[in-house]
Amino acid sequence: MGIPSHLSAGDIEEFGREMDAIRNEVMDSRGDRDRAYILRVIRWQRSLALGGRIVMFISLLALPLSGLPYAGWPQFLVVLALGSIMLGIAKIIENMEIGHNVMHAQWDWMRDPNIQSNTWEWDNVCPSDQWKHSHNVVHHTWTNVIGKDPDIGYGVLRVTPVQHWRPKFLAQPLINFFLNILFQWGVAIHDLEVDKILEGEKSLASVRPMLRRIVWKASRQLLKDYVLWPALGALLTLPAALVLQVNPAAVALAAFLLVAGGNMFANLMRNVWSNVIIFCGHFPSGVHHFSKQDVEGETRARWYIRQLLGSANIGGGKLFHVLSGNLSHQIEHHLFPDMPSNRYPEVAPRVRALAARYRLPYNTASLTRQFGSTTWTIWRLAFPGGRIKAATA
Amino acid sequence: MQPVDNPSWLTRLGDAFAWPLRTSHYLELVNPLWTTHALQARVEKVWDETADARTITLRPGRNWRSHRPGQHLRIGVPIGGMHYTRTYSISSAPEASDELITITVKAITGGRMSHHLVRNIKPGDHLPIGVPQGDFYLPDANPVQPLFISAGSGITPIISMLRSLVAQERLPDVVHLHYAPHAYDVIFGNELRALAARHPQYRLHLLYTREPGAAPTAAAAGRRHFSAEQLGEVCPDWRDRDVFACGPQGLLDALESHWDRAGLSRQLHSERFRAQVAATPAQVSSGTVRFARSGVVASSDGVVNLLRLAEDHGLNPAHGCRMGICHGCDAVLKSGCVRDLRTNAMLNEADQIVQICVCAAAGDAELEL
């Protein structure tokens, strides 16, 4: 694996210069339209989140327990699901196109005091400061370097045959499933490096301050989605229950549980979706991995090549790219992590052409294909062995 | 721009619903003036005072507090997607009953922000603002006999003081020296002349520095600008007065040395606006870097990155990748100029965030570290 041998040191540096030229050209042209884009996305996302919660409340009017003439389970569930899906999409956009990218400092250049990487907090149980460390500092600097990048299997999965097989990996199809549905919790504890704690490399006491912060963040997230909004929904049903002379306690309890359930579905949507997109960024077949020797004395140009070979793109339409936080352009994101995400679609063809000229692989395929090969890899590598299938140009 | 501390329990409960945002972020969707997380103002009216000066009437949002006449506010404008902050004196009196404030901006040659405000801002725009600041205002308690000295757009804090004194019906004995290039360049010229006609205790002296006709020799120009003789002529009792002055650097320097020589510098109050943009050196140049929070001063060769420079001088700033990817070392540039070592771009806007691992000082710079 490592850096392809068909390129001379001079070729590599020239490749780096061309990549820098693309970066500088785009970064110099940032302006009003980029600002308008992120402000529009933020406005839409907030409206969608609030709208989803309101639609969920409106669904309570069709709650069968109320005895209203038009009430009934099918109409109730359809409206509740609509509200829940709206909230789920809002959470996806908030975490991916807004949160992830703002915390990458993609929008710091605007100097807008309300959109800054160092003050942004996202709608996720992972505290933003810990995420910025594990993601921006560790993962983006050491992308796919075995023993350095904790995102290679997140310490629990074997995603490349280069990782030594151990019996614990037999459980990885099951672990993968739970990581998928509980993804935000996995992200939350990622920076603690639980695997190192279990193996005794790191003491529990050393992570206690981080743990306290995770509890602080998670409790606010849980309070909002599973106590406050459901309680408000329950409260809103009370006047109607009194007027209609139905058991107010039963209606309120039902409303509380159903709104909480709707919120849980929204969080589940976000977990599953972000997990799928992020796994497709580095785990599909053909992605390269590197050894510590590969990155010794690494130049900026070699770093670019490692990012290109270590990432994979997903093809799709405009809406798909926004919903994936433009991480469907994982290659471009890894080459230029602080470039505004709305510019990735326009640099992607240039990066692809540049890779082709230097006969370097550019790993892109449909979501089905990338997710299929990712899932296959995880199932196959639960067992010993496995073949390295590095893509070539 | 300033967040509000000590919210009530109701606000805190509401904010728990909106976590990790605040209720205010959702109110902003409806009306930006209702926000409490950031103070904003809506442009209500624009009015051209002269060919290059425009008065902008603003309706500040909730959380605005009334200013003292003479104070200024910070105002932010996005130009080319980038947020610039400048300070402008408030020209309206706090006694105005319409809850509106005005600022008067003169387009400065090469001034990006002033040009934008004078040419492009239109009613209905929303601009982030700060609360009133500054200690340039008339004392409330003991009435003073002011001598106002202003030049150009330096009239703005002075007109606020005058308007306020008139509104309170306690205009004292005032002498006012105002410098402008030509008669038609006097911002608020009609209002000042009307004020002088109506109130005999207000004595206005308009001095034109570039009035056509007279030979534009150095000596002639010297007579037109501030001088001790000129002051003695128009205001013989200047030693007994409290002076409030606002204008360009040159005028304020001249006033300061004059009152200093007279041993009366306590009586001189002047409003200076710190330069927000540092000069950019043409090539790599050495300089002094001040780390403001730690008080450490280091000399830079203009090549070494600021993170390394800080570490070499015993500081330990937060950092991550050391190659400009992670933004873990971002720090605020207080003043001066730095160079991005990757692109050679010069960054010289005060209060902007710079990545210290890939920037070197370009000349002198001050960092919040």
From TrEMBL, chain A:
The chain crosses the membrane at residues 48-67, 73-93, 226-244, 250-269. Residues 79-364 form the Fatty acid desaturase domain. CDD domains: Delta6-FADS-like. The keyword GTP-binding does not apply. Keywords: Membrane, Transmembrane, Transmembrane helix. GO terms for molecular function: oxidoreductase activity, acting on paired donors, with oxidation of a pair of donors resulting in the reduction of molecular oxygen to two molecules of water. One of its GO terms (cellular component) is membrane. It comes from Solimonas terrae. It holds the Pfam family FA_desaturase. This is Acyl-CoA desaturase. GO terms for biological process: lipid biosynthetic process.
From TrEMBL, chain B:
Its cofactor is [2Fe-2S] cluster; FAD. This is Ferredoxin reductase. Keywords: 2Fe-2S, FAD, Flavoprotein, Iron, Iron-sulfur, Metal-binding, Oxidoreductase. PROSITE patterns: FAD_FR (PS51384). InterPro entries: 2Fe-2S_ferredoxin-like_sf (IPR036010), 2Fe-2S_ferredoxin-type (IPR001041), Beta-grasp_dom_sf (IPR012675), Cbr1-like_FAD-bd_dom (IPR008333), FAD-bd_FR_type (IPR017927), Flavoprot_Pyr_Nucl_cyt_Rdtase (IPR001709), FNR_nucleotide-bd (IPR039261), MRET (IPR050415). It comes from the Bacteria. In the N-terminal section; belongs to the FAD-binding oxidoreductase type 6 family. CDD domains: fer2 (cd00207), FNR_iron_sulfur_binding_2 (cd06216). It comes from Solimonas terrae. GO terms for molecular function: 2 iron, 2 sulfur cluster binding; metal ion binding; oxidoreductase activity. Residues 36-139 form the FAD-binding FR-type domain. It holds the Pfam family NAD_binding_1.
